[in-house]
Design goal:
This protein is α+β, with helices and mostly antiparallel strands. The protein has a single domain, classed as Alpha-Beta Plaits (2-Layer Sandwich), CATH 3.30.70.3090. Helix content is about 30%, strand content about 35%. It has a four-stranded antiparallel sheet with strand order 2-3-1-4, with helices on one face. Strand 2 and strand 3 form a beta hairpin. It is globular, with a radius of gyration of 12 Å. The two termini are about 15 Å apart.
Length: about 80
């Protein structure tokens, strides 16, 4: 499976607890789309949230986020890592 980094904007002031809850919501249904969300990061000041996942497609990543109420603004493939 491929890796993807998705980006959410407009989440200014997000707390650690809110990030955990959103991540848990994704984890609860990720298997239905064949996705595995590995980690999430947030910058409350800029309102930017990043999620790293393995998935069959960027559309599968987006479907999970849409179903849990926080669609991604961007989904990028990450074909190279060190």
């Amino acid at each position: 499976m491929a890796k993807f980094m998705d980006v959410h904007h407009g989440m200014t002031g997000i707390t650690g607890e809110q990030l955990r809850m959103a991540h848990q919501a994704d984890l609860a249904i990720e298997g239905e789309e064949g996705v595995h969300f590995e980690q999430a990061w947030a910058d409350p000041e800029s309102g930017t949230v990043y999620c790293l996942s393995e998935a069959p497609s960027k559309e599968a990543v987006q479907r999970v986020h849409e179903r849990t109420g926080h669609p991604a603004d961007e989904v990028h493939p990450v074909p190279i890592a060190v």
